[in-house]
From TrEMBL:
PROSITE patterns: GNAT_YJDJ (PS51729). One of its GO terms (molecular function) is transferase activity. Pfam families: Acetyltransf_CG. This is N-acetyltransferase. Keywords: Transferase. The lineage of its organism: Bacteria, Pseudomonadati, Pseudomonadota, Alphaproteobacteria, Rhodobacterales.
Length: 92
């Protein structure tokens, strides 16, 4: 499964594109060391198939490698942090 990353000056997003739809998770940059996950959306045809979790895994892995912390404002992102206590070190 390919996850694309688009990085802007103040925000970014991770996207999975399939023939059946897209899954997207967006974040805002809050300084040099903090990102705020603010929205996750998965097209109806892809819901319940783990696409949202894959997006969150990529965000956590990438931000960890960059030495950044995450504020999970998005309800889905917050729920994923509760399900993955091993990500606790990434919380700001």
């Amino acid at each position: 499964m390919q996850v694309d990353f688009e990085d802007g000056w103040t925000s970014g997003r991770y996207i999975i594109r399939t023939k059946d739809g897209e899954a997207v998770s967006t974040f805002s940059k809050a300084g040099e060391k903090i990102v705020i996950t603010d929205h996750t959306e998965v097209d109806d045809a892809l819901r319940g198939l783990g696409y949202g979790e894959v997006l969150m895994e990529h965000i956590v892995t990438d931000m960890r490698s960059q030495g950044k912390k995450i504020v999970p404002l998005c309800p889905f992102a917050a729920s994923q942090f509760r399900k993955h206590p091993e990500w606790a070190d990434m919380l700001n």
